[in-house]
Amino acid sequence: MLKFLSFRLFSALLTILFALTIAFCLGHISGNPVFNMLGPTAPKAQIHLLEHQLGLDKSFIQQYFSYLSNLFHGQLGNSIQFESSNVSMISTRLPNTLELLALAMMIAISIGGPLGIIAALKRNSIWDRLASGAALVGQSVPIFWLGIMVILVFSVHLRLFPAGQKNGFSSFVLPAVCLALLPMAQIARLMRATISEVFEEPYIDAAKARGLSTKRIVFGHALRNASLPVITIISLQIGSLLSGAIAVEYVFGWPGVGTLAVNAIQFHDYTLIQAIVVIGVLGFVFINFCVDVLYGIIDPRIRDATK
Amino acid sequence: MTISFETNNSDLLLAKSKNKKWYKTAIFWISAPLILITLTCVFASLLPLSDPNNLDLSSTVLPPFFMHGGSMTHPLGTSNLGQDLLSELIFGGRTTIFIGLVGMLGGALPGILLGLVAGFSRGIVDTVIARLIDAQLSLPFILVALAVIASRGHSVGVILTVLALTTWPFFARVIRSEALSLRERPFVMSLRSAGVTRTRILLKHILPNLFGTVVVLSTLGIGAAILIESAIDFLGLGVTAPGLSWGSILASGQSQIGTAWWIAAWPGIMISVFVLLVNLLGDELISRFDPRYRNR
């Protein structure tokens, strides 16, 4: 188990290093931020001064290593536009984003999971068609458009829920449902596939032969094996969930990290963008590491494979 | 370009299925509207449409024909600047579909190449590419897009680069795992023992075996690219006028959602329908190419 853990930890660290390097390069291929901040007519002396303050006059390699050592000490720099520390700006907004994401994932799992199981048990039934149809539509509708249409129907016309801002539980409903749609569809689709696959296994036939009820076979025998790939997909979807969260937060004016990211881009605040990307990557890799470890605990074959 | 490739390909597939007439297959009924939409958009300038840039301040925010106050001169209504929404949609579709196709190709070529190399060579090369795929997947695509576009400006070239950057790992991941299993198959082993060079095995024997996967991935990739491009345009970071696109029409309608819902509704419907058709086509192609799915 220790060997398994250290192997996973090593590859997680490697992924972080790669992603941080990509984030650093993205910040630099995007041109000299000083020109964007000061405008094209700024005097040369002022440009040099700001470049010096930001450390942009050093060589590329020097900048890369000072960026990494700052990260290692937990420093993500100060925002150029908002003139406060990036860490504090992100940490005040992060809880709002996390609450939204957690609620969306809860909705997605609690509806998508059962829908997939029903679809697998009653293949070609109305539930199966509904689940497959919902999955396809969920993958095709742009999430920001869905947000706008949902606002149109439920806030402008029916006046059931507020259209934006974070203000009590009712304001959570619309953005969380919008955000949940895509992962819900994917979970339902995958659950259907894995349950169908597991039901072909001999041990399910054995359980049927013993006269167990379908309910007991599903929950006692099939679900555990079928949920392993579903967990993997959920962890892989975190990246696209974050992308969706940015769009949804922007549409609903949600005071989270996503709205902050869009604002940072609009003000060409590249240190803030870099900081947000770094936080996103760390969160993603952390979740993946947790899933890997969980996997090893649940399934001994995976744990032993690295020996 | 790719659309015609797909139709040729589906003809080829249709020939294979014996019992069904070509016009009774799902692939025909899915690809026909796709081709129709694409051709309408491509030949937009030949159609009797008003210029989408034509501002007519005497007829702003007209509703579509089926609502009170609407007329058939502007069947889908007009924008807040009096532009005809039907012609805006058709001309906008041209940009969106073009960017979707080229963006997908930009991601597919490096993705397939890197996936092949990684899966076939294994060892340190594979480890590095696999980590690179993970790292790229871990960056939310909107953040990548925003970071690049923020300072490189809004041009079609930049958006294509962003699409290539964000879609290549999806291709690479699938192709890598397929190549990993192909290289262990007896026919590859025997080729290697016969002394055939690695490059030749890759190009002449492994690549043709991945044909089905590549077609399916490319089809699904077009849908993904269109969704990403629309999101970028919607956030106001994409192509701006005169290069209208579905995403930017949608963005212009967002602020008027309370008074003129149709401005935001039409482009969203177009994006959804187009991507839905592309995804359906991808699903149909999977069941054609992969015998494991045939009886499901």
Give the structure's gist in a few sentences.
The complex is a heterodimer of chains A (307) and B (296). Chain A is mainly alpha-helical and 307 residues long. Helix content of chain A is 79%, strand content 0%.
Describe the structure.
The complex is a heterodimer of chains A (307) and B (296). With 307 residues, chain A is mainly alpha-helical. In chain A, 79% of the residues lie in helices and 0% in strands. The mean pLDDT of chain A is 79. By secondary structure, chain B is mostly helical. In chain B, helix 2 (26-42) crosses helix 3, helix 3 crosses helix 9 and helix 5 (141-152) runs antiparallel to helix 6 (156-182). Chains A and B meet through helix 1, helix 6, helix 7, helix 11 and helix 12 of A and helix 4, helix 5, helix 9, helix 10 and helix 11 of B.
Helix-strand layout with pairing:
The complex is a heterodimer of chains A (307) and B (296).
Chain A: H1 2-29, H2 33-38, H3 44-54, H4 60-72, H5 86-121, H6 126-140, H7 143-157, H8 170-198, H9 202-209, H10 214-236, H11 238-252, H12 257-266, H13 270-298, H14 300-305
Helix pairs in contact in A: 1-13, 5-6, 5-8, 6-8, 7-8, 7-11, 8-10, 8-11, 10-13, 11-12, 12-13
Chain B: H1 2-16, H2 26-42, H3 85-121, H4 123-138, H5 141-152, H6 156-182, H7 186-193, H8 198-209, H9 211-234, H10 246-254, H11 261-289
The major pleated sheet of chain B works out as: none
Unreliable runs of chain A = none
Instruction: Give the largest interface pair and sizes.
Output: A-B, 54 and 47 residues
Radius of gyration of chain B, taken over Cα atoms and rounded to an integer in Å: 22 Å
Subunit organisation of the chains: heterodimer
Question: How many DSSP-defined strands of chain B?
Answer: 0
State the shape of chain B: elongated
Q: Give the SSE order of chain A as H and E letters.
A: HHHHHHHHHHHHHH
Structural class of chain A: mainly alpha
